[in-house]
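Action item from last meeting closed. Structure (334 res):
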């Protein structure tokens, strides 16, 4: 349908972009609030089902007081003025005192909650998960604000609901950070997506060799274009063994090869994949509205499939229109 000859070599382009997950901007104090309120939500499920449970008459007060203390801390933390550090620490102490009191109450009361069926078991498991997240973020907030520690990146969590979410620095002015996962796509000269990969804490340069192995098994490749984020000396050397033209600009100052006319011509064609990415984002692949990593991966797969089907459908429609236009001319000639 696209190729004039089935054996014709492909001209590929690879780039990546972030598909955001459905999360709010994370801070240790608002993630602590998320964990705390979900613990209270699970307790409410038991209270609705078993009216005889005692000890939670003021559960609404717990929620409103915690939310108020969280907002007060956020307000003090983001404002200026005199003695800011002192006011921030006082707000943190008040917030942490309340959350610790709730955590201690949960630890003592949760073992007493009923477990009569699988639904009860499910709620218990969710409650235990959010209690562990609550404990984690109490520790992070105390270490950061009260002890003045800088929290290592690997200890941070960017959503208590979508645990797979990564903090992706784009190196651009706006937005300079995105929350989700990087998606690498490879398109051909016909703008079809031949391969996509959701990167799991990986950089662009880390996925090239496995990607090349997948594609070279299926197709003959004449040229392959990348941007500077994919640069690696070994990557380019290995790809050049199998592919005649590998356009992989080096980080830093341009080499003599990059000044060559042929290199520039092929490099300029790489911008076509930016158009493909813009189309994907415009049609819904900028942010996944679904919950859970399984649904996140499914959403991306369906988005890529829909993109390719649209490209194929457009070619079929153009061929049908050309055929309809040609029929009157053929009848007239007859």
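Sequence:
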């Amino acid at each position: 349908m696209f190729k004039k000859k089935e054996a014709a070599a492909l001209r590929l382009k690879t780039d990546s972009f972030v598909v955001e997950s459905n999360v709010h901007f994370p801070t240790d104090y608002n993630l602590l609030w998320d964990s705390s309120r979900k613990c209270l939500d699970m307790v409410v499920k038991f209270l609705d089902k078993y009216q005889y449970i005692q000890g939670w008459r003021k559960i609404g007060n717990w929620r409103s007081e915690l939310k108020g203390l969280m907002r007060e801390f956020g307000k003090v933390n983001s404002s200026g003025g005199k003695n800011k550090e002192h006011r921030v620490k006082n707000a943190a102490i008040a917030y942490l005192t309340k959350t610790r009191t709730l955590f201690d109450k949960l630890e003592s009361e949760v073992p007493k909650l009923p477990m009569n069926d699988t639904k009860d078991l499910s709620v218990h498991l969710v409650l235990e998960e959010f209690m562990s997240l609550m404990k984690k973020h109490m520790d992070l907030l105390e270490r950061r604000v009260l002890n003045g520690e800088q929290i290592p990146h690997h200890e941070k969590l960017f959503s208590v609901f979508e645990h797979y979410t990564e903090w992706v620095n784009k190196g651009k002015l706006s937005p300079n950070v995105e929350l989700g996962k990087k998606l690498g796509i490879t398109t051909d000269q016909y703008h079809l997506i031949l391969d996509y990969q959701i990167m799991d804490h990986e950089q662009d340069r880390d996925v090239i060799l496995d990607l090349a192995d997948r594609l070279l098994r299926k197709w003959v490749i004449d040229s392959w274009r990348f941007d500077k984020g994919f640069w690696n000396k070994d990557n380019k050397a290995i790809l050049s063994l199998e592919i005649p033209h590998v356009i992989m600009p080096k980080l830093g100052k341009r080499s003599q090869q990059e000044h060559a006319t042929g290199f520039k011509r092929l490099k300029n064609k790489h911008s076509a994949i930016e158009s493909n990415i813009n189309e994907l984002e415009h049609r819904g692949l900028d942010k996944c509205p679904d919950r859970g990593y399984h649904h996140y991966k499914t959403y991306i797969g369906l988005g890529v499939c829909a993109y390719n089907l649209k490209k194929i459908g457009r070619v079929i429609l153009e061929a049908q229109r050309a055929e309809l236009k040609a029929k009157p001319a053929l009848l007239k000639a007859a």
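Note appended to the action item: The chain is about 55% helix and 10% strand.
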